[in-house]
Specification:
This protein is mostly helical. Helix content is 71%, strand content 5%. The mean pLDDT is 81.
């Protein structure tokens, strides 16, 4: 098998395609959550704590001098990233919780027992006939 055909077989496998779709959707979901956190959650939270915007929180370690930029410890961006992570983790947790509930409901639903095979049916009939003959022989 040539390298091109091996690559084609690998690339079109279900797992690889599913993973690619998951990565693309995950990236889009990350943008949505970042916008939600930055544009919806953080403004009211900042207002509650006195109008502070976390992303602007920083400590200047060394002021800018000429062409050399300032050295800044931007801990507000770190706080923002941690809050983003917590919200994303919670959203994923809730999604997985829903999926697990659906799986449990699916597993609880009883399925009908499978119909006996023709061989099993025949053996059952033979057993019943043999039992009937034994009962007819007994005095």
């Amino acid at each position: 098998m040539g390298m091109l055909s091996e690559f084609k077989a690998f690339a079109v496998k279900g797992n690889v395609v599913d993973m690619a779709v998951g990565i693309i959707i995950g990236a889009a979901f990350g943008k949505i959550v970042s916008s939600f956190v930055g544009d919806v959650v953080m403004p009211p939270l900042g207002l509650l704590i006195g109008g502070v915007d976390f992303s602007d929180l920083a400590i200047t370690l060394k002021a800018a001098e000429g062409d050399v930029p300032a050295v800044v410890l931007a801990y507000g961006k770190f706080i923002q990233t941690v809050i983003d992570f917590i919200i994303i983790a919670f959203a994923i947790f809730m999604g997985i919780k829903v999926i697990n509930r659906l799986k449990r409901e699916e597993a609880v639903a009883p399925s009908a027992p499978p119909a006996p095979t023709p061989s099993e049916t025949l053996l059952t009939e033979i057993r019943d006939l043999l039992k009937a003959q034994d009962h007819n022989r007994l005095p």
